[in-house]
Structures are given as C-alpha cells and as structure tokens.
Amino acid sequence: MGVTENVQKPLDRMAASLAAEMAAVNDLIRQRMSSRHAPRIPEVTAHLIEAGGKRLRPMLTLAAARLCGYDGPHHIHLAATVEFIHTATLLHDDVVDESRQRRGRPTANLLWDNKSSVLVGDYLFARSFQLMVEPGNLRTLEILSNASATIAEGEVLQLTAAQDLATDESVYLQVVRGKTAALFAAATEVGGVIAGAPEAQVRALHDYGDALGIAFQIVDDILDYGGATQTIGKNVGDDFRECKLTLPVIKAVARADAAERAFWTRTIERADQREDDLAQALHLLARHGALADARADALAWAARARTALATLPEDPLRGMLADLADFVVSRVA
To answer: What cofactor does this one take (predicted)?
Structure first.
C-alpha cells in the first residue's frame, strides 16, 4: 500500500511549481520558530518541522492563492500560519496519544518530555496568531482562528467518542471534520480570500479542502490496519492499541454478532488487550469488508474534492489540486 513513483509525481509537480514560494515559507517558519530566551523551543520545533514532511497544507494555501491570481506577499504568512497550527496540533496529539513515533522518527515527547511538547505547541499556536494578523485581512484571521478552535473541539470530541461503541459514522465524520479537515479547508479558503477571489470560488476552495481532508483522514485510518510502517510513519495497529474507534472499526462493530461485539467492547471500550487481539481485529475487519468499504468512502470524498474544483480558473495548478485528491486515496489503491 505504499506510494508509487507515478502517484508521487503530482505532489512533486506542485512542489516544483511552488518552489520559490515554499522556500519563502520555510525561511519565515525558521525565523519565527526561534526564541532568544528558550532554546528548547527551536530544538523541539525543528525536530518535527525538519522531519521531512511534504508541507501539504501550506502548499494548498500557496496553490489556492496563485490559482486565483494573487501576486502579493501575504500568502506566505498565511501558509506559514497553517504549518505552525498543524505542527502545534501534532505536538499536542503525540502527548495525548502517548505516541512514540511520528514520520518515522521518535516523537518530541519521547525525546524530551510531555511538558516540553505541550508548551512548545502552545508557543507555536501563539506564533501562528502573530503571523495570521500580519496580512491585515480580517476575514483570513477569522477563518484561521475559527479553524484553530474547531481543531481543538474535534480533538476533545474524539476523547469521548473514540472508545464508545455507540459512536457512529456521523460522529466520526464530525471528529474528522474537526481534527483534520478544518485545517485543510482553512488552508485553501484563505488562499482564495487573500487573492480577492469571487465568493463562489472561495466556497469551492473551502469545499475542496474539506473533502480532501476527510479523504486524507479516512485513508490514514485504513493504513493503520494495513500500511507499512515506513509508509505511514507510525507502527501498524497504533490506533487499535490506543483504543481508537476509527471508521473501519465502526463499520465492523455495526455488523458484529454478539461474540464480536464483546471482543470490541473488551479491546476498545475497556482497553483490555491481549497478545493476539490485533490479529483478531484484522480478521474481523476483513470478514465484514470494513477496510474495503472505508476505502470506497475515501474514494467518494476524493471525487467530491475534484468536483469542487470545477468552478475555479483553468490553470495547471487546478489540475495538480485534482491530482492531489487521487494521490491521497492512491495510498490504499
């Protein structure tokens, strides 16, 4: 289920097209993650930011702004803001989830400690608000600040929903829209807003980011039960071991008989897991076609993302954004 060379090319093409602007974003990130008084801040931040991530979210902001004809400097600030928000949430998530690996490397909370990860995450959130103010655009400030609140709300909702077998697909979608899709949607939407695009195009960019983010998270949840560790940057089965009720499990629970439901109750709700439980979970997911059905959902959301682009200007970047939707779901093709 790895990313093939042919699939990787759309993302590489976008990175090449936006190379100069991404270099400016990276320079700004390095400037603003510094601290004169607390050297641990750049140490922790650099560990994650320099870990080889594709910078997908800030690239979405740059692509949306350029697609809509923007030629000013402020999309750089907005893209850096998006990356800081994303990095802050990752630092906090790894503490909450007690994660030990991120992007194939030890997590910051493992290398330093939980306090450092939380406080540096807070610092990055504060930096993101400084950055989002600088363009002087009230609407982009509103979009990004609302997204920050929505992300936190989604994470809190997940705390209560992730181990409750009563959680259904509608609640799952609410969680995903909060913790993942909100930042994708904000990233694309602010690109259109800063460019002064017509309202229909701004809405299309929001809808594209929302659908792309949902597809992205569903794929991530599928890969947890079938991806290679080097592909997903974490250990296979981490969501199961962390007792997270993700979409594949929700589908399997909905189709479970009494004995199967007792298994999910013990392993997810009561967090009572034994040596062979992951293998049994994989067996039940396969038995009920849960992974295949989750993949079909991801493909449908990717198709919605591509459809949303129809009202946007004809441009090679529009094709790249459409290809990105294919890229996201190809990881489970």
So the answer is: Mg(2+)
